[in-house]
């Protein structure tokens, strides 16, 4: 969800086309710095990304442009989500064993809890993830940049939360990848998360980042959350107690579904 009336905070810059990559990183940095300055001077608090964030050139194309209309969901949308030809299997949460061989890259575990705004666990939540491989490439027809495809890594997994709201995935740390927002634009390494509640109308999509990434300050998607504390909630913590001897590194990331500390959500997109 977006902050209320963010356009009251500053005069938005002119949004350009989705594939307009002529601008330099320096130009984007200047635009983001100006927006940050205006936000800090406004005295407002915004915990969600702005719908129109000019440095994110295609943001103008990624949200409704007309008034929303309420419609009742179809009956089928009120049943608990189910995907695939079978129930969710526990092995689907291990992305390193899914396709016949060992994938290339740094093996990691991501775990945490899904909580409501009062800190209570959200049980039996369907959690799905998708990500780029260690070279920063997705298994997707629109991703054609010259990085290798790993034949042993699909980049997708899913699990159900436990009674304590916990989830856990074993995967490969994704690499950063280029995108067409501007010249020499690179996305920080991240993992996409999708969560479903009790029906199809209850879905949240977000991204988890890794600590210390040098691309944070350069990325207009990450910076479209103008509040520093809200952005920081997207970054996982390294957890040495989760790391396993000579096997993998561990990260902890809790997801809060509601309240003032809720996790940032994104539109369903392919970035």
Automatic annotation (TrEMBL):
<feature type="compositionally biased region" description="Acidic residues">
    <location>
        <begin position="20"/>
        <end position="32"/>
    </location>
</feature>
<feature type="compositionally biased region" description="Basic and acidic residues">
    <location>
        <begin position="37"/>
        <end position="49"/>
    </location>
</feature>
<feature type="domain" description="Intradiol ring-cleavage dioxygenases">
    <location>
        <begin position="110"/>
        <end position="138"/>
    </location>
</feature>
<dbReference type="InterPro" id="IPR024756">
    <property type="entry name" value="PCDO_beta_N"/>
</dbReference>
<keyword id="KW-0560">Oxidoreductase</keyword>
<dbReference type="InterPro" id="IPR000627">
    <property type="entry name" value="Intradiol_dOase_C"/>
</dbReference>
<feature type="compositionally biased region" description="Acidic residues">
    <location>
        <begin position="1"/>
        <end position="10"/>
    </location>
</feature>
<comment type="similarity">
    <text>Belongs to the intradiol ring-cleavage dioxygenase family.</text>
</comment>
<dbReference type="Pfam" id="PF00775">
    <property type="entry name" value="Dioxygenase_C"/>
</dbReference>
<protein>
    <submittedName>
        <fullName>Protocatechuate 3,4-dioxygenase subunit beta</fullName>
    </submittedName>
</protein>
<dbReference type="InterPro" id="IPR050770">
    <property type="entry name" value="Intradiol_RC_Dioxygenase"/>
</dbReference>
<keyword id="KW-0223">Dioxygenase</keyword>
<dbReference type="InterPro" id="IPR012785">
    <property type="entry name" value="Protocat_dOase_b"/>
</dbReference>
<dbReference type="Pfam" id="PF12391">
    <property type="entry name" value="PCDO_beta_N"/>
</dbReference>
<feature type="region of interest" description="Disordered">
    <location>
        <begin position="1"/>
        <end position="49"/>
    </location>
</feature>
<dbReference type="InterPro" id="IPR015889">
    <property type="entry name" value="Intradiol_dOase_core"/>
</dbReference>
């Amino acid at each position: 969800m977006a902050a209320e009336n963010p356009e009251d905070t500053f005069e938005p810059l002119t949004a350009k086309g989705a594939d307009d990559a002529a601008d330099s990183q320096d130009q984007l940095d200047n635009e983001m710095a100006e927006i940050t300055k205006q936000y800090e001077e406004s005295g407002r608090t915004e915990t969600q990304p702005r719908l129109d964030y000019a440095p994110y050139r295609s943001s103008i194309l990624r949200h409704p442009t007309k008034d929303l209309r309420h419609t009742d969901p179809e009956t089928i949308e009120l049943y608990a989500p189910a995907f695939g030809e079978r129930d969710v299997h526990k092995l689907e949460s291990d992305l390193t064993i899914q396709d016949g061989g060992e994938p290339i890259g740094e093996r990691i575990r991501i775990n945490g809890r899904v909580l409501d705004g009062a800190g209570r666990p959200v049980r039996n939540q369907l959690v799905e993830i998708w990500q780029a491989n260690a070279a920063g490439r997705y298994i997707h027809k629109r991703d054609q940049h010259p990085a290798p495809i790993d034949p042993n890594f699909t980049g997708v997994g899913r699990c159900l939360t436990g009674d304590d709201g916990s989830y856990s995935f074993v995967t490969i740390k994704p690499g950063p990848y280029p995108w067409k927002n501007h010249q020499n634009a690179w996305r920080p390494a991240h993992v996409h998360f999708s969560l479903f509640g009790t029906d199809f109308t209850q879905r949240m999509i977000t991204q988890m980042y890794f600590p210390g990434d040098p691309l944070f300050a350069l990325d207009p998607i990450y910076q479209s959350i103008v509040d520093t504390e809200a952005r920081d909630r997207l970054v996982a913590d390294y957890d040495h107690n989760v790391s396993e001897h000579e096997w993998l590194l561990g990260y902890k990331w809790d997801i809060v579904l509601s309240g003032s500390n809720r996790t940032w959500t994104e539109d369903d997109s392919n970035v």
